[in-house]
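INFO batch 0412 | record 1 of 1 | parsing
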Amino acid sequence: MNRFKWLLAPVLMAAALGTTFAADPLKQQVAGLWSLTAQYVDRADGSRLERFGPSPKGLAYFDQGGRFSQVMVRADLPKIASNNAMTATDAENRAIIEGSTAFFGTWSVDEATSTLLQRIEGSTFPNWNGTELKRTLSLSGDEMKQCVASQVGGTSCAIWRRVR
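INFO prediction complete | emitting tokens
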């Protein structure tokens, strides 16, 4: 055993410094709290649609146990003139529903395909309830990009920054 101690030194040094020899599995990289920095749809004609505007707001939380919650809103959502959500005008309601989305449920990742799988339990877009969304994932440092085929054509992507 004594002759192999020199082999353990780099491993012990890396552990003491908090370094790892292999990248964290994708699920560990996704877990945590994220802040929305951009959301857009790149259309086949080359145009870009920003449903939540140029400065979107949002949070996504992915816990280690496989639960998640995501909220995305426009920074410029209109206030309801009556100050009562139950008496908002049709125009106010339309602007709010077009400029926001929220959903929650369970999540997992497919490491082989870098795919995020979200099983939707509840959503402000009720058509998603009971469905599974599949989004491609790319992570680089504290940035996560999720992309999916858009309902309006093209590719919809959300860019998130890890909250520390």
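INFO post-check: Residues 39 and 158 are 4 Å apart (CA to CA).
INFO record closed
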